[in-house]
Amino acid sequence: MSRHSRRSPNLSDDLVTAILLKLPVESLLRFKLVNKSWCYQIKSPEFIMLQINESSSDINRQKILLISSKIIPSRGLEYNMLGFTISSTEASSLTVNSQVMSLEPPLPVFSFDFSYPLMSSCNGLLCMIYSHGIVLWNPAIKRYKMIPKPDCYMLRRANINNYESALYGFAYDSVTEDYKVVATLVINAKDCNYVVGMYSVNNRSWRKIGTIPDGYRLFDQNSISLYGTINMMATNSVQENGSSTFNKFAIISLFVGDKKFIVTPVPLEYCGNHMKLSNFANRLCVSMFVEMDFLVCSLEKNGEIGWTWTNVMRVSTLGSLIGNHGHLDDIICVKKNGNILWRKTDGNFLEYNVKKEEVTEFTLSEIPPTADLSILYAESLACLKIPWE
User: Fold this and answer.
1) Across the 389 residues of the chain, what is the mean pLDDT of every consecutive 10-residue run?
2) Nearest Cα to 294, choosing from 324, 255, 323?
3) Do 59 and 333 touch, CB atoms closer than 8 A?
4) Among 94, 101, 150, which Cα is nearest to 127's?
5) CA nearest to 30, candidates 45, 17, 21, 42
6) pTM, whole model, 2 decimals?
7) Cα dist from 215 to 66, 247, 266, whole Å
8) Burial class (CB in 10 A: 0-12, 13-18, 19+), 327
């Protein structure tokens, strides 16, 4: 082969970038070895952010993080340990023939704990909360970082002795180019008493930032990270006519840049059962059953004042169709073709074809019935500005 024939085609930088952005992370890591210019481009912060935006906004590139567990008898301990197996599969194309890929935790210690780890995702990074610590992990590039839990710091600053539970969120502050972990300590859920702290990855420190807006009780479910905000479902009991009470639902959003909370009320006509907040390809959505109808309501960020309700997908026949298929667990995603994917409490999957008004039930043998479908995430090249472990 001649020297001339070994040269790369004379492609413009924009065209090369467009091609590279369509590739999976595994391919990008290999292509860094092609030549120095490609390596420089793929490692650049500008390309990494473009790749994050490209992958996170495409529902076809979303993956489901799966966690399976088994009990491990622990001599000398009050409670038995759980051993975890972590894996992932494609969300939008999930079928009976889907492949499940095993993910190796960064350290063996992350395969064991007394309970399921709490999970959050942002820009392809996973924030995993264990009883013994917090790990930020990018499974695509196999890098991780340990950070301390907020317990001692938060308890001391809040002047409290104990708390009932903790909720966590994970978001990216584009202004300071810093990842933030947010811990909401539930001091007393009945009295809506919370203390909120924030950890700056760049500064490597926790800071108490306030509390949840008065009167709101948070749902015990994963918070959703999007566009520099951490979003949580909440309810507020309101008295009417001085006697009867009813629940008003809302989305509590923390803007991590200026540490402000914004409340976006859920319109009364959208309030129902099994309400869940989700991020479907960079769209903040609330799903719920209202009587026999299933609704997926989309929201758009409205500057720094919160969210605006923009679109509602109403499936009027779904309630009667799924009645013969048993109880549903959480919604997984709305696929690119508009179909809705659920998981049942017995571990099987349901896909509702919106156009044909048909429900298909299937089993994926590689996913145990007890596996927890924790979160959606998209693989990325995201790095921290501080050294990895």
Assistant:
1) 49 86 93 87 93 91 87 74 87 86 87 84 93 92 92 72 88 94 91 92 92 92 91 85 72 94 90 86 88 85 80 74 61 83 83 86 83 84 90
2) 323
3) yes
4) 150
5) 42
6) 0.89
7) 34, 11, 16
8) exposed
Complete DSSP assignment for 222-278 = --EEETTEEEEEEEEEEEETTTEEEEEEEEEEEETTTTEEEEEEPPGGG--EEEEEE
Q: Which residues contact 187 (CB under 8 A, 6 or more apart)?
A: 158, 160, 163, 164, 193, 194, 195
- List 240's β-bridge partners, or say none: 244
> Rounded to the nearest 5°, which phi and psi values hold at 300?
-125, 145
d(C-alpha 88, C-alpha 111), whole Å: 15
Helix (H) or strand (E) holding 15: helix 13-21
**CA distance linking residue 170 with residue 182, whole number of Å:** 6
Exposure of 228 by Cβ count < 10 A (0-12 exposed, 13-18 middle, 19+ buried)? buried
In contact, 321 and 352? CB cutoff 8 Å: yes
**pLDDT confidence of residue 374:** 65
Q: Are 300 and 76 in contact (CB under 8 A)?
A: no
Q: Are 312 and 300 in contact (CB under 8 A)?
A: no
User: Which residues, at least 6 apart from 69, have a Cβ–Cβ distance to it below 8 Å?
Assistant: 82, 83, 84, 85, 116, 370, 372
Rounded-to-integer distance, Cα 216 and Cα 386, Å? 36
**Given this model, what pLDDT does residue 357 score?**
83
The whole-angstrom separation of Cα 189 and Cα 161 is: 16
pLDDT given at position 181: 96
Q: What is the DSSP letter of 324?
A: G
Tell me how far apart the alpha carbons of residues 280 and 286 are, in angstroms, rounded to a whole number.
10
Pick the closest to residue 90 from 118, 41, 55 (CA basis). Answer: 55
